[in-house]
Design brief:
mainly beta, 15-stranded antiparallel sheet, 1 helix
């Protein structure tokens, strides 16, 4: 979107219109250092899939794209470690078995050390004042195989960016910080009923928070302090069924529900000398977002493939209910093995909005829900195109509108 700002734009949509998932958990801020670093450590990822049109019915809640990422499950046979050293950041990933052949773990961590490198320079130049910036993130995943029919996966992510400073003058100290971060956790149970039917049951938590603090002290005694934060926290559950009557035919269905807790603003001001200036205000709101879907992916002939589906989405907030049907359809036809045409139609609804300050590059954005006065965002998308693969040259060209 511009220098010093983070976010990606798909087909004219805004950064908030992209559904970013990490092991089924939504991620609300996908960048470190204003977009210069991804919030995801590539060493911990197994797959990344971007869908920008013809959305399957199993996805909902955003208008422009779906970025679905899955973490590695860890090596069940032997312990492996990978270390990366850089000028401003380093990373380490360790994976291996807990019970050989049955369970495994993966741990991945990353941190910048810009603050550690420049702290002595700042202190020397400013007579003892300090300041800096850092980010760190941590990924972990455990999985256990209970036999042919049951598997359990536990995964989590935590990441944080922080600016900070401390200025000393006379006997006074003035300090402040600016930080933001994501935390997610997913517990998933995979159950196989038979060789054609299996299910996934997931419990999901996602938490995003922006926090700024400032404090003034005299002789180490608090004089004045200010704290402001905003954020969004989700608690979700989903149940998905996959039925595969044949190699060419897959039917998916499921339901999911998410409780959103929005902290639009929370402000605390404490003034030791004048208590009349003390303030403590919190503006929370909430909403419940749910969906049920049915999706049929069918290879009708060797050349023709279709994905047809319907999703019914629901949102409840402030005594108001929104019910929205969302039909989905996509077709692809292979004229020959290296040339295909495709077309899709999608309806989507988005029940949460992002209020942005476009004048600054800081992540001070506020996530707020649709209300009884502000309706959900809605989109209809029609797409069609042609794709040509150059098999011997190992590249492809597509044109789509």
């Amino acid at each position: 979107g511009g220098e010093g700002s983070a976010g990606f734009y798909v087909r004219g949509g805004g950064p908030d219109q992209n559904l970013i998932l990490l092991d089924d958990a939504p991620v609300y801020n996908a960048f470190h250092l204003f977009g210069f670093f991804s919030v995801f450590n590539g060493d911990a990822l197994k797959s990344v899939e971007l869908t920008k049109g013809g959305f399957p019915a199993r996805y909902g809640g955003r208008l422009s794209s779906v970025l679905d990422m899955r973490m590695k499950e860890g090596n069940k046979e032997k312990v492996q470690a990978e270390v990366g050293l850089g000028l401003i950041s380093s990373r380490i990933t360790i994976e291996g078995p807990l019970a050989k052949g049955k369970s495994s773990f993966l741990i991945s961590a990353r941190r910048t050390y810009i603050d550690l490198l420049i702290a002595p320079i700042i202190a020397a130049a400013s007579g003892g004042s300090t300041g800096g910036y850092f980010f760190h993130d941590f990924n972990a995943k455990l999985n256990y195989d209970f036999g042919d029919k049951n598997k359990v996966f536990l995964s989590g992510y935590f990441g944080k960016d922080k600016f900070y400073f401390k200025d000393k003058y006379g006997g006074n100290t003035f300090s402040g910080s600016l930080g933001w971060g994501d935390a997610t956790a997913t517990a998933r149970w995979n159950h196989q009923f038979n060789n054609k039917l299996f299910s996934n049951t997931s419990l999901i938590v996602s938490d995003y928070k922006f926090l700024t603090k400032a404090e003034e002290k005299i002789a180490n005694q608090p004089l004045f302090s200010l704290k402001y934060y905003s954020g969004i926290r989700d608690y979700g559950a989903k149940y998905d069924l996959d039925f595969r009557p044949s190699l060419k035919h897959t039917i998916k269905g499921g339901l999911q529900s998410t409780y959103h807790s929005f902290t639009i603003s929370a402000l605390t001001i404490s003034d030791t000398y004048d208590s009349s200036n003390n303030v403590r205000t919190i503006k929370p709101t909430e909403g419940i977002e749910s969906g049920i879907y049915l999706e049929d992916d069918y290879k009708i002939t060797n050349a023709l493939k279709a994905n047809l589906g319907i999703r019914i989405s629901h949102f409840y907030t402030q005594g108001t209910n929104y019910f929205k049907p969302e039909p989905r359809a996509s077709l692809s036809y292979n004229i020959n093995e290296d040339l295909a045409v495709k077309a899709s139609y999608t309806e989507m609804n988005q029940y949460i909005h992002l209020i942005s300050n476009t004048g600054i590059g800081l992540p001070t954005d506020l996530w707020v829900p649709a209300t009884k006065n502000v309706a959900p965002q809605y989109s209809q998308q029609v797409a069609a195109g042609v794709a040509k693969d150059f098999l011997t040259k190992n590249f492809s060209v597509s044109v789509e509108g």
